[in-house]
Amino acid sequence: MNDEHIHHHDHEEEHEKQACGCGHAHHHEHGDGCCSGHAHHHEHDDGCSCGHSHGGSTPGERREMLVRIVVGVMLLAAAWLSPLTGIWRLLAFLIPYLVVGYDTILSALRGICSGHVFDENFLMTVASLGALCIGDYPEAVAVLLFNLVGELFEDTAVQRSRGAIEGLMNIRPDHANVERDGAVTAVKPEEVRPGETIVVRPGERVPLDGMVLSGASTLDTASLTGEAAPRAVQEGDSVISGCVNLTGVLRVRTTGEYAQSTVARILALVEEAGERKARTESLITRFARWYTPLVCALALLVCMVPPLVTGAAFSVWLRRALLFLVISCPCALVLSVPLTFFAGIGCASKNGILIKGSNLMEMLCKCDTVVFDKTGTLTSGVFSVSEINAEGMEREELLYLAAHAESWSMHPIAQAVRTAYGGKICEDAVQDVHEEAGLGVVAQVYGRRVALGNERLMKRETGAAAPGTEGTCVHAAVDGRYAGYILVEDRLKDSAAQSIQELRAQGVRRTVMLTGDHRAAAERAARQAGVDEVRAELLPQDKVACVEEMLAQKKENTAVIFVGDGVNDAPVLARSDVGVAMGALGSDAAVEAADVVLMDDNPARLPLAIRIARRTCAIAWQNIVFALGVKVLIMALGALGLAGMWAAVFADVGVSVIAVANATRAMRIRQDK
Fold first, then answer.
1. pTM of the full predicted structure?
2. Distance from C-alpha of 525 to C-alpha of 640, rounded to nearest angstrom
3. What value does the mean pLDDT take over residues 369-397?
4. Are residues 142 and 218 in the same domain?
C-alpha cells in the first residue's frame, strides 16, 4: 500500500478525525458528534459545523426529544388558533418556541462564548429570532420544531447503523474459565497466560486463541467470518477467539495472550477504521469549515445590498436572508458522507471482511489489477496425491516404499505421500534416512535403497533422465533403477475460478499470479483458475519487484491489489495500493501488513469487498449531489422570493433525513446480490 493513503496522514487530516459518524462503535471521550452544541453532547470541535448529535443520543434522550416534539406541536396549535393579539400572542408562541428550541439557543450561546460561532445552532437561532422580530411567529417555532424532528430521525438512523458495528463488538469475550490448582476459575481474558488451559462450555465464546487438548464440538464462526455453517473441531485442532461453542465442552491450551488474539486484533482493526478517512470525507470536512461562515456573509449581503441599492423594503430582504440561513445548513453533507462509509465498513465486517479505513474503500473502487499469491490464496495449501505411475513394480508397492522413506520428513509433500498410503509406518524398517538439499530424500527401506526427489536426484541415482511431467512430481528410484513417480498437487479452492470471473465482470482488467512454485505447477493452477498471467519460481523480493513494476505501469486513478496469506507476503502486501490478507489461516505478519482482511480465506470475499466499496462510494456521492443540488435550488428560489420558510425547513431537515436514510443502504449489501 502506498504511504499517501494509509500510514501517513498529514497534519490537517489528523485533526479532522471523527468528523461525524465516526466509524468507531464505541464513543470516544473527545466526542463523536460534530461541534455538538446540545447540553447532552460533547463539545469537541471535529470540524463539522452542524449541531446534531449524530447518533450520540441515548434512548432516554431520544424519548425526551419525542415528548418535546409532541408537546411543542400541541402548544403551537393552541397558540395559532388562539384569539390573542399583540404582546400576548407573542408570549403564546414563545412557550412552544422555548420548549422545542431551548437547547439549540443555549448551544448557540455556548458556541459563541467558546469561539465556535458558525454552526447549525447559530444559523437556526438567528433565523428563528429574526422570524420573531418580523412577526412570523409560527414560522419561528416551525424552524426549531422541524430541526428537532430532523435530529430525532437522524439519531434513529445513525443508531441503526451503529447497531451493526456494535453487534460485531459482541465478539469480545466476558471471561475465561482457566484451570489453576485443580480448579476452574473465571477470570478476565487479559489475565490468562500463554500455555494455560481454559475450559469452554457450550454457549460460551472462545476467549483466546489456542489448540484443543480434549473434547469435540462445533463452533459458530459467523460473527468472525460471515460463514453460516458451523465448524467442527476436535482434539489437536486450533480454535480462534470470538467463536461461539455450540455443543461439547472443550479444553483448550492457549497459544498467546489476549492482546494478540484474533478477537482483540479484529476489535482493534474495526476501531481504527474510522480514523483512516476517505478523501471524500476529508473534502467534506474541510468544506464545512469555510462553508458556514461564507453563507452567513452571503445572507448578510442578501439582507443589506438590495434595500441599499434598489430601495426595496428591508423587511422583505430580511425575511429572504433568514430563509437563506436555514437553507444553507450543511448537516446533510457532514453527517451523511461519513455515515455512509461507516455503514459500508460495518456491512463488510458483517460479511467477514475487515476494511481498515474508509480511504481503502475508495482505493478498492479503483481496482484495475489484482495480483494473487498461489499457495493458500487461490489454492488450499494442502497437498494431496493425484496420480501414481509405477515402473517395474505395483503402484501399491511404490507408494509403500515412498511413504516409509518420507516417514521422518515434516515437509507438506511428505505428509501428502503418507496420507495417501494410509497404513501404519513400520519404523524399524527404515534406516539411514538423510535429506539431500535441493534434491530430495534417500533412505534404506527393508534394505532397499529408496530415493525420492527431483530430476537431478534421479540423474544421479539412475544415470538417466527422468521422464517429463506436469505439476509437482516426486520421482522415485529403487536400488539404482527408476521406479516411477508420484504426482502431488495443491488443489485449487472451490471458489477461486468463480472469483476470477466475478472480478473480470466487475471491470478488473488484469489478474496475475505470483508464486515461488515450479513453473509447470503454477501454470496449471493459473489455467484452472482463469488467471491472465503467471510468474513462477519467485523469491519474496522478486514478488515485491513484480508489484512495483505493475505500480509503475498502472494507469492514473487505478489501483493494484495484492492478495496473499503467508509471512513472506507481508512486504508485498505493504507495497501494493491495497494489500488483502487471508485472515483465518493467514500469518500474523500478513494480517498486520494488509489493508483488508478476508476472515474465512475465501477468495469470493474479494469481489464482494469491491462491490461493497463501489456501492458505498456511489451512495456517498449520491448524497453529496442531492444535498448540494436541493440546497442551491431552494437558496436561489428563496433569494428571489419564490420559496418560503417551509421550503427552507425541507432543504435543511428534509434533505438531512433523506441523505441519512440513503446512507444506511450501504449496510444492506450481501454475498448473494
1. 0.66
2. 68
3. 88
4. no
